[in-house]
Amino acid sequence: MVDYIFSDDKLLCVFEERLDTSGCLEFEKELLDKAGNANTAVVFDMRAVNYIASSFLKICFRISKEKGDGNLSLINVSPEIKKILKIAGADKHIKID
Amino acid sequence: MPEETVILKNRLSELSKLQTFVDSFGGKYALSEETIRNANLAMEEAVVNIISYAHKTRNEEHEIIIRLKMEGYELVFNIEDDGIPFNPLDFPEPDPDRPVEDKAGGGLGIYLIRSLAKSASYTRKQGKNLLSITMEINRDG
């Protein structure tokens, strides 16, 4: 459900299209563990994502809190998903491209 | 006005049934992708709240009844459950400027519902929670 690509300067997490409550429950623990153990910035590749629920936002906020502002970024985010992230105020803590 | 109903059990596994219901309604009445996505999100958040908070234990099986109707340029969801009195709209108004520490906790789902909906109301009647959510239909997308 999530592909993890480790490199010297970042942990890249590539998601599938739908990040709803049930889906997030399946990968939440693994993702939090991998992000927490990485001594690098964490990058979420949102290229395929067309739906997010509050459970995904909570994961973003937890990782952002743990890694510190600026150490989590979301890339390849569609305008629709950006809208939801902005409503939740995620753009104030997380780099979104 | 077209109206359809779906009955879910208070299980997260039922969320896929909810998605199918909303997608099917949206397809039937040619609603835009944005309208369907926002409706799915608001409904998912509302139902997850009920599943999470409306009953003393998650082992009890209960029904959540969702009636969806279209009124002009609006979608109206009426959600009924027999859980303990719980008004999700009692949560504080959305505040996107809260620090990240607060956002990682609860209340985000309601936050999204209030932001996406045109209006929402709650009543307690005959031992049931009745949550009504009205959303505007986006005709552009």
Describe this structure as you would to a colleague.
Chain A is of the alpha/beta class. Chain A has helices spanning 21-37, 54-67, 79-87, and strands at residues 2-6, 10-15, 18-19, 41-45, 51-52, 72-75, 95-96. In chain A, the strands form two sheets. A five-stranded mixed sheet of chain A has the order 1-2-4-6-7. In chain A, strands 3-5 form a two-stranded parallel ribbon. Chain A is globular. The two termini of chain A are 22 Å apart. In chain B, strands 1-2-3-5-4 form a five-stranded antiparallel sheet, with helices on one face. Chain B is of the alpha+beta class and 141 residues long. Chain B has helices at 15-28, 33-53, 100-103, 108-116; strands spanning 3-9, 63-71, 74-81, 119-125, 128-136. Chain B is globular, with a radius of gyration of 15 Å. Classes of the chains: A alpha/beta (97), B alpha+beta (141). Chain A binds chain B through residues 20-22, 25, 50-51, 53-55, 57-58, 61-62, 64-65, 69, 80, 84, 86-90, 92-93, and chain B through 12-13, 15-16, 19, 34, 37, 40-41, 44-45, 48, 94-98, 100-101, 103-105, 108-109, 111-112, 115-116.
Key terms:
heterodimer; A: 97 residues; alpha/beta; 5-stranded mixed β-sheet; two-stranded parallel sheet; 3 helices; 7 strands; 41% helix; globular; B: 141 residues; alpha+beta; 5 strands; 28% strand
